[in-house]
Design goal:
It is built from no helices and 26 strands. The chain is mostly beta strands and about 325 residues long. Keywords: Signal.
Length: about 325
């Protein structure tokens, strides 16, 4: 099984803030406090927001304090923006709301953390291919969560000590979730969706840190590229043949390379090849990924070569490639 490797195709994600609150006894949550974004990044801008359905905050003096230092105070200032610290830092924001007969305080603690998501498709690509192996219809893929969390002791939390909850298209996948399960393997299950939505929530219960992130993995249609196979050097992967090719010799072997099929190699038993030359089947090369063509006359002309490649185990994994081969008249 071969997996393509992504270079930071995943986005960074941060933990939700840990919220604590204090209020006047007898008053049941007259004010709520929230953080936007819910998962702020280290050294990024975050905004704390106050809301209330029972207190007129527009007429209330609101004072904001960060890490023990008063930052601002104004009537009706219902939000406060600040810059989070580095990974592992702790930022505490305290807010007090006062008006005649009311004195309420709330606080929110932000511990920013990172989680990267990397996804890899279980699809075939030719040797020396430098791109990413893409996920194709009916194919499977793997998502790996790479958390960056600093505990309250100041040390990095090992990935195996975290709890991972994976969701696919909004539904929890219980078998893939649990302690240390930072990898998720799945196949496309809905042909009506444009992609598969994968979400992971990573938590460190002892340190009250939680992080989550979602990505959408969109399938592609497999494709075929043609290469010349040289008798001395083998398949010339350095340069694919274009849609037109001029045959300068009496004989050429053309190799059809399948991209993004669910197979370990181009010669896997589940991959079939059907060749046609000028719309006529070439049964002698059926099932082979390469075909040898020879000139049978001295006159100029051209021939259309095509191949249909199909994954016999995956109905939606098929592709067709065409190439027009022209040849000049031989000099006598």
């Amino acid at each position: 099984m071969r997996f393509g490797i992504t270079a930071f195709l995943l986005a960074l994600i941060m933990l939700p803030a840990v919220v604590t609150a204090q209020g006047v006894p007898g008053i049941s949550d007259p004010i709520t406090i929230s953080l936007s974004p819910e998962n702020p990044r280290p050294e990024s801008t975050a905004t704390v927001i106050l809301q209330s359905f029972s207190v007129d905050l527009d007429a209330t003096l609101i004072t904001w304090t960060i890490n023990g230092k008063k930052s601002s105070s104004a009537v009706g200032q219902k939000s406060f923006s600040f810059n989070t610290g580095k990974l592992g830092s702790v930022s505490r924001v305290d807010v007090s709301a006062t008006s005649p007969g009311i004195s309420i305080t709330r606080s929110i603690i932000v511990r920013p953390a990172d989680v990267s998501l990397l996804w890899e498709a279980d699809t075939y690509t030719p040797p020396f291919y430098r791109g990413k192996a893409l996920h194709s219809y009916n194919g499977s893929f793997r998502v790996t969560a790479i958390p960056e969390m600093i505990g309250t002791n100041g040390k990095k939390i090992d990935a195996k000590d975290l709890i991972y909850t994976w969701k696919k298209n909004g539904l929890v996948v219980a078998d893939s979730s649990g302690y240390g399960k930072n990898q998720f393997i799945s196949s496309q299950t809905s042909y009506l969706r444009e992609g598969e939505d994968i979400t992971v929530e990573v938590s460190a219960p002892r340190d009250s840190i939680v992080a989550s992130r979602s990505i959408t993995i969109k399938p592609v249609v497999p494709k075929i590229l043609f290469y010349e196979k040289n008798g001395l050097y083998g398949t010339l992967y350095g340069s694919a043949l274009g849609s037109r090719f001029n045959l300068g010799q009496d004989e050429i072997t053309v190799s059809a390379e399948p991209y993004f099929f669910s197979a370990s190699s181009k010669s896997s038993s589940n991959i079939s090849y059907s060749w046609k030359l000028n719309n006529s089947s070439v049964p002698s090369f059926a099932g082979e990924n390469e075909i040898t063509l020879r000139r049978d006359s001295d006159t100029a002309g051209r021939s259309n070569l095509s191949v249909v490649v199909q994954n016999q185990n995956k109905l939606l994994q098929g592709a067709k490639g065409d190439i027009l081969i022209s040849f000049d008249a031989k000099n006598r």
